[in-house]
Description:
The protein is α/β, with parallel strands linked by helices. It is 32% helix and 26% strand. A 6-stranded parallel β-sheet has the order 1-4-3-2-5-6, sandwiched between helices. Strand 5 (119-123), helix 6 (136-146) and strand 6 form a beta-alpha-beta unit. The longest helix is centred in the C-terminal third of the chain and has 20 residues, at 291-310.
Amino acid sequence: MRIVRDWQFVEDRDRGASAAIGNFDGVHRGHHHVIDIARDAARQLGAPLGVMTFEPHPRQYFAPKAPPFRLMNAEARAHRLEWLGVEVLYELSFNDTLSALTPEAFAARVIAEGLGLAHVVIGEDFHFGKGRTGSAADLIEFGAKMGFGVTVAPLIADTGAEISSTAIRAALTDGRPRDAARMLGHWHRIDGKVIRGDQRGRTLGYPTANMSITDLHPPKFGVYVVKVDVLTGPYTGSYGGAASMGVRPMFGENLPNLESYLLDFKGDIYDEHLSVALIDYLRPEKKFASLKALIAQMDADCADARAVLAGL
């Protein structure tokens, strides 16, 4: 998958795509539906399949001090879109220039002239342009004048309720990763680089891979059953594990992070990139009376994780 970040400088091979447009936070089942419609149009046109999205998320751009809300960082989103068969990801830089474009200017300068898209697919609740004043109906009108096709995808529902990033966040906040996965169409994953922590786990017999969750919506703090994909380095592959999400109350006040223990694994994966899938929530965080009690609980957590993973 090729990634294009500047709509003003696009190679010929990346023009003329059929592209789904949106933020695609979580890349959930509703997003799959929009991408599949774009895929069908791409086949009919003999065009590449594309996705247009924005980085940073416009909500982050306009309210940088608001609480973290993203389900995925850009790396995780790109991995998921590539897995879905997207050929060109237009990950456009959301900045003063782009945010100031009127709806008509966005359609003309970005979609028609800059990227030269042949067809676009949007959700029925799509808004665009300065102040989000452009509607789906406006884009259809602009497309007819500017030479690109437009398809509006209806929203899809799950057990009577719309599938949305908001509903998925609520499931994760409640510690319901399987409910989140049903709406997503895949396990909720946290992707990123392994960073150096305090290395306490190593002294306890449970070395962990530490990852930042800064700028992401934090799932319920506690211990999870996880599947860990090591994406880079000599140990690439998939491993079962148990992970702690939170502030590590046993060791004072700490920034929230994700610490994953990979079952039956030995190796140095510092600075490698991981994708950690949350499978089940086991228990809340707690402060134990002693390190011995903590280790006993970690033994139990790993046994529980093995049992859950064996049943998948």
